Amino acid sequence: MPKLETNAEAYPRLLDWLRYFCAFMLYMYGISKLVHLQFNMQSELAQQPVGSLTGYQLTWFYFGFSLVYASILGLTQVVGATLLLFRKTTLLGALAMLPVMANILLINIFILVNDYGPYLISGLICASLLIILWHQRVALISLLWSSQNGEAVSSLRVHRRIRLILVSAATTIMVSGAILQHHVERSREQNRHRLTVHSRN
Is residue 101 within 8 Å of residue 76, measured between CB atoms? Predict the structure, then answer.
């Protein structure tokens, strides 16, 4: 029992504030999706040409295309926020929410280019989750690396060959596909050019 009290007292107060901050913001984002305050511009944008839409409008139109998807995303954020409310489940909540928030951060940075508010908040949430996970790095390394079994020595050669085959095959297929696609597009462009020249003559 004293050991539990010592562990609780050793938990940095900063991490409590960070997890509560993340929980509050995730609740805000999650509930707004569940009540359809976010991603609700379908009727306004549906009739506009795609090329005329801003990154913000494209994002909201895309994610709002399916109400079910938006609700699942919102529910995921609400569940993650709930996990962050308790020290016992904070590590699980941070692990679950970091990929979600990292993806949102990338969308905010590279698609909502000139809208600094969203990616400032999502950046703060990601940084907070990383700090929480860094505090638990020993447990994470033990769980995700040290305690995991590698391939048996007797089958190492086989697994190396399988890895090499998989990477080589995927790379070859994708590069070949890209070359073929480029060739097809170039042929179409040449055909269009010939038709244009022929029509002018």
Answer: no
Nearest-CA neighbor of 21 among 73, 84, 78? Answer: 84
> Virtual CA dihedral for 45, 50, 51, 56, nearest 10 degrees?
50
Query: What per-residue confidence (pLDDT) applies to 28?
Result: 95
What SS3 class is residue 41? Answer: coil
Instruction: Give the max Cα distance, the chain.
Output: 94
Which pairs from 121-125 meet CB under 8 Å and 24+ separation? 121/25, 124/21, 124/25, 125/21, 125/22, 125/25, 125/26, 125/97, 125/101
Q: Which residues contact 63 (CB under 8 A, 6 or more apart)?
A: 38, 39, 69, 70, 73
Q: How many CB atoms lie within 10 A of CB 57?
A: 16
What are the boundaries of each domain within the chain?
9-144, 156-200
Q: How far apart are CA 11 and CA 102, in angstroms?
A: 25
This prediction has a pTM of 0.80
Nearest to 17 by CA among 135, 103, 119, 138: 135
Q: What is the pLDDT of residue 8?
A: 57
